[in-house]
Predict the structure.
Amino acid sequence: MPLVRVPTPLRPYTDGQKDVEVSGQTVGGALEALTERFPALRTHLFDEAGALRSFVHVFLGEQDVRELHGEATELQANDRLLIVPSIAGGSTAARPVDHSALRANQAMIIALLGAAYVADVSWLAAFVGAVMLFGSALGRPGFLDVYRLLRAVRVLRPDVYRDHPEPHRFAQALGGLVLAGATAAFLTGLPGAGWILTWIVIALAGLNLFGGFCAGCAVYYWMARLKLPGFTQSPPDGVLPGRRPIQRA
Amino acid sequence: MTLLLSPALARAIQSKGEAAYPEEGAGLILGRIDGERRQALQLLPLPNRSPEASRRRRYSFDPRDLLQAEVEAERLGLEILGVYHSHPDHPARPSETDLELALPWYCYVITSVERGRAGESAAWRLADDHSRFEAYAIDMLTPGG
């Protein structure tokens, strides 16, 4: 009779048996006989529709039975089937990130920097830069409290995606640094250069708010691709670097 | 549950994590089962087959490599006791990804590698209800012990 080799993680369901002799002319028949004898094994091998789970591989000799005739693959009396479950993992999964908070932050940055330009108040640009750098140091949007207030009075609602917070933190720090450069320009008597830098921040925050593209995040992911230390995240699955994630949390 | 791990094997797990940095390095732990105790006797490094873009936060093995591992374990007269993998610049705790993809029974040894240097290693197993990981004791054997 064919033999089924049970991998260690599934042996608790076969009373600890490593090799189980089964009847059956086909792979499907052999697995059926196995799960009839050990019913607790069934949910680990088959899904609700009765199909072999995608992460469970069954090998006949060197070949995955999916490359043969699947469960219809015929068995000889002295054949041995090996059940091989997939093994995978990783350090981080995407986490819930409230994009509503990020957008409120971008809107505040644009509004205050725009007002600073219109009223020709350079210290306001310096203030926004400081709030952004301070927020990044704390790992949160600089104007988070404004968002919390607007959420409390139900003007804004959370919009949570599976995403990585680190690139957003980096993007905000980058914007804060550009505004620090603008402040340095204002202080050294170069207001033109100061306002150009300020407008770069307004434009990139606008691109993020209205276009759904976070340029600073894209830079972060490119740095990660270059394997620079400290840049550990890759874009969420199926998302281009800097684009808004697809999957809601 | 206790994993008996010699200092040499513990060090080998750490240096494999360092060698793979900034990507995740992973492999299998082979050994013997003795009731509630599992004695690690050999490591079997396997290639990380995750797409290159995500190898810094993911690992996965090719089923064919796992088949070869089963054959190798049988040749050595050992069992696959679990999996070791590194968390580059992340703590030695199982992540949500680890929980989603974990198999029961296996002992998962996770090593934190901070900026290329291995830090803490910790062992875990999936709880019976699959809702979380439980810490697994590592018993460091003294050489010859």
Notes: The longest strand of chain A covers residues 80-85. Residues 6 and 243 of chain A are 44 Å apart (CA to CA). Chain A touches chain B at residues 5, 7-12, 57, 59, 62, 64, 82, 84-93, 224-225, 227, 229-230, 232-235, 237 (CB under 8 Å).
